[in-house]
From TrEMBL:
Principal location class: cytoplasm
Reaction equation(s) it catalyzes: alpha-D-glucose 6-phosphate = beta-D-fructose 6-phosphate
Protein name (Swiss-Prot/TrEMBL): Glucose-6-phosphate isomerase
InterPro entries: G6P_Isomerase, G6P_Isomerase_C, Phosphoglucose_isomerase_CS, SIS_dom_sf, SIS_PGI_1, SIS_PGI_2
BP term (GO), one: glycolytic process
GO molecular function: carbohydrate derivative binding; glucose-6-phosphate isomerase activity; monosaccharide binding
Function description: Catalyzes the reversible isomerization of glucose-6-phosphate to fructose-6-phosphate.
Protein's gene: pgi
Pathway the protein acts in: Carbohydrate degradation; glycolysis; D-glyceraldehyde 3-phosphate and glycerone phosphate from D-glucose: step 2/4; Carbohydrate biosynthesis; gluconeogenesis
EC number: 5.3.1.9
Stored Pfam families: PGI (PF00342)
Organism of derivation: Terasakiella brassicae
Length: 549
């Protein structure tokens, strides 16, 4: 047993789980009309309703005790104080400094990082204004019309997601495109039809060593040079990175490099200059509104007591289902088309952060850690995987994200969208008993025999827990709030599980092996030293791939 599973707070929750595991939420709601008031919180216009969870006040009290006994508040303070909480990489975790909108100093290793943070924001502002107002032009003197972000993982997902979410704030003057996959199809299809004279590439890579990004950037540079000559590169390429030397080696002038720092993790870097494409396409003011939204959530997280702290509440509910109910999966279901990319973005933030199997001391853990996260936008998701959520055998905890207002004045659509959001969470909680099904079929005049056949299929167990997050409207501010909320939720879970949420060693091995295998594909190295499956696959691919013969 680990210190965590042996702790009184954990043991109390284990006992409490026995009391509550067979209680139906329908009965909890029938008994308590004040559940919504009791189990909902607000912060700067964002509402969390967590009443449709398998909890009572006692549950929340015990989860609060667990958070307290795991030192969540102290860990939070350590993060906000710039301590090196990323222990395996010996770094601070300080993305909160990037969106610190107060005049507080943010100290890492005895040094206030705010002057550098503000200087980069200023540099971004000048550059964005120059591009947007036509002072920065391509080599032939034409205005920039397309921004191509070349990056992968944290240097791609947040930027795509935010730009898609904020599409209604985008003018037609600048269009964003993205190249991430090393598959040449991504590059070719993205560049197809582009006018080199009006295209600006941003090479976004924290390390500037990521194989995919460097190859894509090299191929994009070749495409540009072929069309406009070598001199065009400095007019059409800028970089965002922490690695000045590598940026220089690639041939980008460091005057056109936007820096950030090793205390910003890749998947937490959308707030840094990695967000340059957002600032270019929407304008720097909008980017800073996103930072304001994140800052509002940071302040809520930093100052609210555990019982009223939205990220902590969501984190502890996740712990409740993962560790006490034993569920492995969490679904995130935004009811807003602009948030279609949000689940995919969150997969990296959550699964790369908390997909860990050893604790901070390097010992294998004896409890479940980060969940499998998936999701898609409602209502489309209802027509694909909701069947399993309602009637399948796997249990899944869920976040529904609803947005009260829409940017488009088509009221009927918004009414139907919101009614589906409410209908689904109600159905998942309440379910439909066999008795109700039978009565309904009888009323419709269905024969007794047919009712016997159909009733089990048409019964819904209910008791499926959902959080409902409600935003007033998709704006840069609310997107900032939402992202920061999930970042902090994931951080809190990592603290409870005593894992390092800020490294990602698990992505290394496959990359290393790929480097060794590439020469075996091209024939520069003999096909050898592999297991027989890899050997067989390699040989078969070579057989099919005539170009390497
Ligand atoms: O920004 P880069 O250094 O190019 O890294 C891009 C991505 O690389 C890896 O996949 C890491 O696991 C990610 O966390 C990171 O975001």
């Amino acid at each position: 047993m680990s210190a965590l599973t042996d702790s009184p707070a954990w043991q109390a929750l284990l006992d409490h789980h026995q009391e509550i595991k067979d209680v139906h939420m329908r009965d909890l709601f029938k008994k308590d009309r004040g559940r919504f008031e009791r189990f909902s919180e607000r912060s700067s216009g964002l509402l969390l309703d967590y009443s449709k969870n398998r909890i009572t006040e006692k549950t929340m009290g015990l989860l609060g005790d667990l958070a307290r006994s795991c030192g969540v508040e102290e860990a939070r303070d350590r993060m906000f104080n710039g301590a090196h909480i990323n222990t395996t990489e010996d770094r601070a975790v300080y993305h909160v400094a990037l969106r610190n909108r107060s005049d507080r100093a943010m100290i890492v290793d005895g040094h206030d990082v705010m002057p550098e943070v503000r200087a980069v924001l200023e540099k971004m502002r000048h550059f964005c204004d120059d591009v947007r107002e036509g002072r920065w032009r391509g080599v032939t003197g034409k205005r920039i019309r397309t921004i191509v972000n070349i990056g992968i993982g944290g240097s791609d997902l947040g930027v795509i997601m935010a730009l898609q979410a904020l599409r209604s704030y985008q003018s037609d003057d600048l269009t964003p495109r993205f190249i991430s996959n090393v598959d040449s199809s991504h590059l070719v299809e993205t560049l197809r039809g582009l006018d080199a004279e009006t295209t600006l590439f941003i090479v976004s890579s924290k390390s500037f060593t990521t194989q995919e990004t460097l190859l894509n950037a090299t191929s994009a540079r070749t495409w540009l040079i072929k069309k406009l000559g070598t001199d065009a590169v400095r007019h059409h390429f800028v970089a965002v990175s922490t690695n000045e030397e590598k940026v220089c080696d690639f041939g980008i002038d460091t005057d056109y490099m936007f820096p950030f720092w090793d205390w910003v993790g890749g998947r937490y870097s959308t707030w840094s200059a990695i967000g340059l494409a957002i600032a270019l396409v929407l304008g720097m003011d909008k980017f800073e509104e996103m930072l304001e939204g994140a800052f509002a959530m940071d302040e809520h997280f930093r100052t609210s007591p555990i019982e009223h702290n939205i990220p902590i509440i969501m984190a502890m509910l996740g712990v409740w289902y993962a560790n006490f109910f034993g569920w492995s999966t969490h679904a995130v279901l935004p009811y807003d088309q602009y948030l279609t990319r949000f689940p995919q973005y969150l997969q990296q933030v959550d699964m790369e952060s908390n997909g860990k199997r050893v604790d901070l001391q390097g010992r294998p853990v004896d409890y479940q850690t980060g969940p499998i996260v998936f999701g898609h936008a409602g209502t489309n998701a209802q027509h694909s995987f909701f069947q399993l959520l309602h009637q399948g055998k796997w249990d899944v905890s869920m976040d529904f994200i609803g947005v009260a207002n829409n940017h488009h004045p088509l009221r009927d659509h918004q009414t139907i969208l919101l009614s589906n959001f409410l209908g689904q969470t109600k159905a998942l909680m309440w379910g439909k008993t066999e008795k109700e099904v039978r009565a309904q079929l009888k009323k419709k005049g269905v024969s007794a025999e047919r009712i016997d056949q159909l009733a089990p299929h048409m019964t819904f167990p209910g008791n499926k827990p959902t959080n409902s997050l409600v935003l007033p409207l998709i704006t840069p501010f609310t997107i900032g709030q939402l992202l920061a909320l999930y970042e902090h939720k994931i951080f809190v879970q990592g603290v409870v599980w005593n894992i390092n949420s800020f490294d990602q060693w698990g992505v290394q091995l496959g990359k290393e092996l790929a480097r060794d295998l590439a020469p075996q594909i091209t024939g520069e190295a003999p096909i050898m030293g592999n297991d027989c499956s890899t050997q067989g696959l390699l040989k078969y691919m070579k057989l099919l791939k005539k170009e390497y013969d």
